[in-house]
């Protein structure tokens, strides 16, 4: 059994200005990750056997970003704002129903 029921990784990669590829962090990935971490704690979902929210380096899908991935299901998402993050938390992490409209 996994140490966490869900392990969520947010790409927070930051490329140099003028780079030939986009960066998830230029789309607010760090603040989205911080929001998700707070929300999961507020809902009492964090900790061993529950949900872990992590920052990750480049997940190599920044062109589709910002992106996050939820394990163990390996479901990839993109998002626009904290409302999307809240929907992922409420639907996927709480109820076990992936949010198809945000899936990559």
CATH class division: Alpha Beta
The name CATH uses for the topology is Glutaredoxin
Mean pLDDT metric: 95
- In the sheet with the most strands, the strands line up as 2-1-3-4
Q: Which descriptor suits the 3D outline? A: globular
What's the main sheet like?
Answer: 4 strands, mixed
Question: Into which percent range does the helicity of residues fall?
Answer: 25-40%
Q: Which architecture name does CATH use?
A: 3-Layer(aba) Sandwich
The number of helical segments is 2
| CATH evolutionary superfamily | Glutaredoxin
Strand-and-helix sequence, N→C? EHEEEH
Distance between the termini: 26 Å
List the SSEs and their pairings.
Layout: E1 6-11, H1 29-42, E2 51-56, E3 67-71, E4 75-78, H2 82-94
Parallel strand pairs: 1-2
Antiparallel strand pairs: 1-3, 3-4
Helix pairs in contact: 1-2
Descriptive tags:
single chain; 104 residues; alpha+beta; Glutaredoxin; four-stranded mixed sheet; 2 helices; 4 strands; 20% strand; globular
Descriptive overview:
The protein has 104 residues and is α+β, with helices and mostly antiparallel strands. The protein has two helices and four strands, in the order βαβββα. It has a four-stranded mixed β-sheet with strand order 2-1-3-4, covered by helices on one side. Helix 1 crosses helix 2.
At a glance:
The chain has helices at residues 29-42, 82-94, and strands at residues 6-11, 51-56, 67-71, 75-78. By secondary structure, the protein is of the alpha+beta class. It comes from Verticiella sediminum.
